[in-house]
Amino acid sequence: MIPSEIYKLWAPDESLWSNWVKPVLFTEPGTTPFPPVNWRQANVAWAPGVDAATAIILDLEEAFPVWMGMALAARGYRPVPLYNGASGPGAIVEVGRIAGALQAVAQDLAALSIAPDAPPVFLLDAKRSGGSTVVSPGRFDNRWAVFPQDFPSANFLLSKGIRAVVLGQTSATAPQSDLAHVLLRWQEAGIQILSCDVRVSLAPAPLQVSRPGHFRSLWYRALVLAGLRRNSAGGFGAVVPEPSQSGGYG
Fold first, then answer.
1. Fewest Cβ atoms nearer than 10 Å: which of 106, 173, 176, 204?
2. What is the mean pLDDT of residues 104-127?
3. Residue 227: which of 140, 145, 133 has the closest Cα?
4. Spatial CA neighbour of 211 closest among 187, 182, 180
5. What are the residue boundaries of the structural domains of the chain, listed by start?
6. Which pLDDT band holds residue 103 (cuts at 50, 70, 90)?
7. Which ranges in 105-227 belong to alpha helices (H)?
8. Which helix (H) or strand (E) holds 140?
9. pLDDT per residue over 131-184, tens digit each?
10. 140 near 89, Cβ under 8 Å?
């Protein structure tokens, strides 16, 4: 399949959530996902049923949200990829295996029967910020962040019957700072936020989202974008330039 066909399988016209699917990784060649995972064996016993008026965010490393998102899709959820970092030589954030996973399961996704108004499961890469990786000249800086505009508003979620959101991570700790800006807005609007360690099968527990820095600040988006590099084809990713050299007289 060509990239546009794969994209349409993940963002079908009939889905309520297709407007939020990021197209960036569907233009990437992708690499063989590792480790090889049979998504049908992913443990999603912790997830509420699709009739529980609940959306899910999977903030996990690399391709694991794709596998788990597919397992949730088999239960009736609609997976919504939000990956927004392009690939390039010497990339800071590994995205090839994510692109490969999205391509590998596209036909499986098309074969599932998912209702147009199915609750969403948003897919994120927990390594999107690059962690402690040194951003040096010559590296392809494809670090990225999420903003409230990348998700449906609280009013939209409530209008579609969503009353709670489960944050699935590899721990039951607080959300990453960029995601906290999204979740706190929802929380303030009356949507319950819950947290779950997806490595265990315990039921999600209520999470009180703390106020992140620059919350609702007019300058927040500009401050974050100032430290990132936009890609001309969309999303984030560009080569870090060599420092300019200035001449002088000896």
1. 173
2. 96
3. 145
4. 180
5. 3-239
6. very high
7. 106-111, 154-159, 177-188, 220-226
8. strand 140-141
9. 877 788 999 999 999 999 999 999 999 999 999 999 999 976 789 999 999 999
10. yes
